[in-house]
Fold these 2 entries.
Entry 1:
Amino acid sequence: MEQPLILKLFYRALTLANLCTLLAHPLSGQTPDDPRFFTKVLYPVLQMAGCNGCHSDDGVASATRLHFPPESASDADREAFGRQLVSLVDARNPEQSLLIAKPTNRLEHTGGQRIVPGSEEEKLLQLWVKHLAVGASEGNSQTNRSSAGEPEVQPTFMSRLTHSQYNNTVRDLLGDETRPADQFPQEDYVRGFKNQSEVQSIPPLLAEAYSAAAEKLAQNAFRGNHWRKVIPCEPASHQDTLCRTQFIRQFGKRAFRRPLTAGELQRYSALFAREAKRTGQFVSGAQLVVEAMLQSPNFLFRMERGPAAKWTDYEVASRLSYFLWDSMPDDPLFQSAASGQLGTAAGVERAARRMLRQPQARQALDEFVSQWLRFDRVLNVVRDRRLFQQFNSGLAVSMTEETRRLVSQLVWNNQDFMEVYKARYGFISSDLAALYGFPAPAEEFGMVQFPDRSDRAGLLGQATFLTLTSKPEETSPTERGLFIREHFLCQKVPPPPPGASASLPPISESKPMTNRERLQVHLSNESCATCHRLIDPIGFGLEKFDAIGRKREKQALTFFAARGEAERKPTKVELDLDAKGRISGIPDSDFSSPAQLGQVLANNTECQKCVVKQVFRYAMGRFETPADRAVIDQGFADFKRSQFKFQELIISLVTSQAFRETARLD
Amino acid sequence: MASKAILSRRAFLRGVGISGAMVSVGLPPLDGMFNSSGTAYAAEVAAGVSGSALFESRFLLWFNGNGIAEKYWIPTETGSNYTLTPCLAPLAPFRDDVHVITGLDNPSARKPGPGNDHHRSMSALVTGTSFTGQGAGAPSIDQLLAAKLGSASRFRSLQVGVCQESFGESIQRNLSWAGRDRPLPPEMLPHKLFNRLFGTKDADWMDRKRSILDAVRQDATALKSRLGKQDQMRVDDYLGSVRDLERAIVSLPPEYSRVEEPEEGGDMKDWPRIAKLQTDLLVHAFASKQTRVASYMLTKCQGLSRFPWLGHTAERHHDYTHDKVETPEGMRILRDICKWHVQEFAYLLAKLKSTPEGEGTLLDNTCVLFVHEHAEANAHKNNGLAVIAAGHAGGLKTGMHTKMTGTVGDLYLTVADEVLNAQLDSFPTADKKLSDLI
């Protein structure tokens, strides 16, 4: 591997060059007494060492006391951060401070050696540590409690209806069950979800799709006598202005999810009147209005930060209904908005609890689960039939159904949600039972206790997770570890450096290797190991479950005849498996089965907090920022206090100020 | 119409333009615009302009994902007498229509930042900027060109796709980008592309649609005035799409009798079949001047296609590029896959070349760039990229293999300004023109 060493040397040279340049300038802050020393001299060293790759709110070291400020932080923020590092300094024995011992790996550091003992960089760090130690022992407390200055306010974008929300909305608005959004250009996953508002644009292809859908929906709504459901009055003629106004107000309020402005009423009345006059039919005017409103930005978008204070309660209503029901508000919710009942946390809680009891809430939960757990990857999976005869698309559907039902059980029965990692029972179909080696269930997807001999539990033991994290022919410990870090611990692992080789040693009949052996190459090279140490060992602990979730005692390698070679029977080599795994950064996390891993995760604070974060990201359509810390902490506290009831987490989030606040901040 | 007034196409569009003054809706539009062979503008012909200068050039960005097997793809010799490698063999009838370019660098792919190599290389390849963590960092080259060249066409640009299998993220599924984090998804279904291009509607329908979009536009404008800056940009984005939609609606599709409507059913995963249907439609779109700029995404970035017609079904494309490439069999599989991509490209060239335009063919007025996100696929190599430039627009040199020193940005800028006369003047990572190209 040529590149990594070269890169390392390059970066060292660059740092030294920078340091020399800095030290050459008279006013460069070269001593710690200079207020610019930390930001101008030491902070770049820490950046170069890559500390913030893990030591951030969403990094692998998020459970430690060291959180770097975000990239956009000001110099003042960074100065404050630098002073706050005194908490990692031992005033009486500065050389033994955590702040030096960890990055040099003198004290075992999950991130490895980031700063070389005896180097220039270490000298600078020591200068700073001594400076802080002196300040601390002189009682000169300049520490700031927070690691950064004023938390930045994340701009919240207006949200476009997702495709599933569009389908549900037209169902509730018009009684139309044709699901037109299934034909729209598919939504992409961005940072784990399909609903992140920052990237929800409307390209021309989608605008055309909205136009075509609106046309069909409007036609369907006025077919036959169906129009009576949409028009609330009996028009005396095509020119009945009273009925026209009544219709536009009533339909418009539901379509735009708030009362129409005078301008909108006038605009749509004119549109209606022209068309009704052209055809001589009241209904055709109404149809045109429906078709137009379905393409208005007032229908397609939800305002997160609305333009008028008088609509705040309506915006809260929409935010509630799109989160809890994945659809528009119903009439009682509109009435609550109209009568000002959604202006308080108590009012919102009342509404939310009512909504959670309705069937739409179940569908909405299913949508969250299918995105969080990437059902699309399972449903699109393809497996080599020679190796996995059992696998077919029906089995993939059963897999996602099992997962969906477990989560539903825990949420709607108000059970401890962390059971999702520990549950020694599941909802099994007969094809899954055959896959797992269980007795056939009494009914399809009935609840079944796992046999004692089985070491499956929760999500990690389900074929859904085990399959979507595998490659077509074999498991991928790296992929499994990465999925667990990102989806269950909310810890971002730094990406591979540019140019990192993606080759693994080839396997052959003469040189067969288990996955663990093959992946040694990640761990024996220091520049790869820094990050792979954080993920591969997690996957190793699950190696006794193959690429479609079957239990195996050995890894079987099958070698088929290559094309062009003489036909021969495939040869099979079986290798012993070492299925010991651990999660770096979580003490006492050794495990060798999904059940053991499930216990580790369920009891881990970061994992519990990650449930809160994932729900936040989905509900808000954006990732959490330092400004959201209070909401996340409160959500976690409420979640924990309730013994991890998912519905209580939801209530905590919807009653938070961040969720209820829609006033403009600029 | 009694007398066949010769209308210029631009006048026609102005007449039914966004300003609302209705002139020609209801006019049978095409007699007055096309001569008898259906391929020239009568007005320009009457003005006495002739030859290929009469026809505006077209640009096509053509892509397949994952990279190549260099050993079987990159010719060893340079110059005009290079031997076609196994992967390039399908180009044999088109030697004089293509310029094989190797050696280009994609430097923005190496800037540290979020994402894996595929994400970073893809953003860098089409925009010259870094992956943002969510999408590409800037408008893609075809969109920059569309902004300059596309304002008079029915569609400012078209995005066409074929294979759908992908890891699902935005940077992997989209080739064209309107701007930072703003993808332009491709149309991947032939019958839908057909409807878009050639579906006909009557004047009443168009009238209706126009009044609807008018109302939508007014709603958006009223809303905008009361929003914060960030949200205003979102609404502007939607307004832009509404404008494009209106333009597409009011410009009536040409009577172009050679277009057959593709059937809606059939094996929708038969990628060679779909690829050809999409190519046919795209060529028709070019020939009928509905657009001047397009992109064609054969497979996705870090794509996961399967290849049953090649007999390679055990794994997906991306797996094949890594798993067994050290073995002779693994390399042969990659060779077969790369060759198929070039076959589809050759099909495109055949179609362009067999479409008459003026005194020559459509290929004479087109410039195609065939790109991939990586060179050697297994290594995720982002320097020494292999690109095929094709067509004869603007004096593009063809018939040779040249190893060039420069970046992909240099290539784009050279094509944009020297071949297409688009006057872009700059592109990220471009700092010189590639003189060997023209």
Entry 2:
Amino acid sequence: MLKIKNLKASVDGNQILKGLNLEVKPGEVHAIMGPNGSGKSTLSNVLAGREDYEVEEGSIVEYLGEDLLELDVEERAKKGIFLAFQYPVEIPGVTTATFLKEIINSVREAQGKEALPAPQILKLMREKIKMVDLPQEFLKRSLNEGFSGGEKKRNEMLQMALLEPQLAILDETDSGLDIDAMKVVANVVNELRKQDRSFIIVTHYQRLLNYIVPDFVHVLHNGRIVKSGDKSLALELEDKGYDWVKKEAPQTV
Amino acid sequence: MTNIQDKHIDRFLTLFQSFEGALNGEKGHPMHEWRRKAIHRLKDLSFPTRRHEEWKYTPVTKVVSPTYSVNPNSELSEKKLEKFKIDDLNAAVLVFVNGQLRKDLSDLDQLPQGLQLMPMSEALDHPDYQDIVKELYISSTEKTEDPFLAMNAAFSKENMFIYVPANTHVTQALHILHINTPEELPYFYNPQKLIHLGKGSKMVLVESYNDLGEGDTKSEYFNNMQNVIHLKGNAQMDHYKLQRESTRSSHLNNTSIYQDRDSVYSNYQLDLGGLWVRNNLNAYHKGENVTTNFYGAFLGKGNQHMDAHTLVDHAIPHCQSNELYKGILDDKAHGVFNGKVMVHKDAQKTNAFQQNSSLLLSEKAVMDAKPQLEIFADDVKCSHGATIGHLDESSVFFLRTRGINEKRAKEMLQEAFLLEVIENMPNESLRAYASKWIAEKLASE
């Protein structure tokens, strides 16, 4: 599904990703952990296509056999990539319902499906909003405006559930969440898990991985994946902290 | 040295002769005496230059230079009228084509219940109304310092007197619908309304300005309009102006509002059309506990110039004013907001709020924002804010990551920006109509 080879990216002239390799196959859940400043958010943003990040020559990112780096932000979304934001933006004046309607039909259109009529979309939204445990009234409010941190993250999960992506990247979705909100996030991911859908869960904490059991755990340090393993690696990190990995990592810079 | 603008005044004086010649029977009426007084006044005035503080950002030369025709035709088929009506609005409609009233297309026989409407000449002959008309009118003829007001009074043909008797609640709206059509020569017209709301009365006035021309056939004209409004004690008025003039036209809106005690006046303005647009909105408080609300939204593209000038004259204690103006400027468009709030020494306990926010979408777009608070009383609450910014890039990115293309994402954010103004409109049909207009303009190239 996704093949990343030798990915190097910088922001404002500072190289953050320094040759990252990762392969995600259909149906797999990969957790990417790492200390602050290791490049976790850069990886998420590069995959979603944020223009502030400059990807260097020689970097290869292949998604479903296509060169992902050549696709516009919205094309990536239409081809099934979803990024759950670490800090979802507030958009005053656009109601959540209007926004959801717009994105559902925009992605459906790209997939060659018919636009859903308003009543059917509303029904769908009302059904899925229960999954993330937000009151129905949130649909009428401006997108994320005045939402708490947890409400914003639930709203991200609602969008993911409605868009049914092929590859979902959760960028520190669990940061700052209480245990109930975190369980909601985990539930949505677990319900959406299926054979041809993959997840990259970027997280600073091991806690979320008690609820979402990953197939692989990778440690990102200094712009590279320095250690990979199964779910037990996450527990080991929780136990020993990141210093242990940092010491083991080869010093090449 | 004579002012260089004098030659433009001279041209309008000459134009008045041909205008007068075409009036025929009306020349004997006292109304025409007033027109002559106004043109006489115009002789002593000159058009403002950019050295004039109130006109610093808005040059008038291009507006007053053309030789305008004063007698455009007023043809329009009933079929073409339909698309200019406002969906679901409960209103009696008066149709003006190129500034001329089309009685046959208007609901003159079905005016809103309780509302009186007549040409000013008729009101002048009417014993109940003549004093009101004289009082409201005199300021715009003999005494005015503004050449555009004198011109409006001199050239006004289709003027109207609107009267709401005391304690009358007019539930149906009055919709003044202007449609412009392309003519061979640029033309010029001067709509004029005197509006009097009696004690405890209430009305909704909707003005819409439209153009029938498209692309290269857009109409070329100068609409020099004037409203003089008097709200007696406890009266309430909702006044909408939705403007989608031709982008080859000039639109000058002079609206003065005189408010007696406990009255509430709310103005909702949307400016999308016009190559040159200037709004002068002046509210004068004449009694305690008056409320004035000014809401304005504008969206300029291409070479459009859009100027909103407001004045709230707080002369009396215990009065309120609220102003919210938001504008978007793209391409080489130029926006101006000049909001003057004058709080006189005696106007204690004044509550005045003003906010102006603008978005600039291109390197060459310009916004001049000038909040002007002059406060001479010491026990007041006054605040103002002016911000000029760009479209938020992280919001655009967020929308794009959800599969919305860049153009549409930017449109959505602009719609949302102006919605903050539009959502204050109390009438749902007009809110929907204004939003539709904004969406259409955003989607156009």
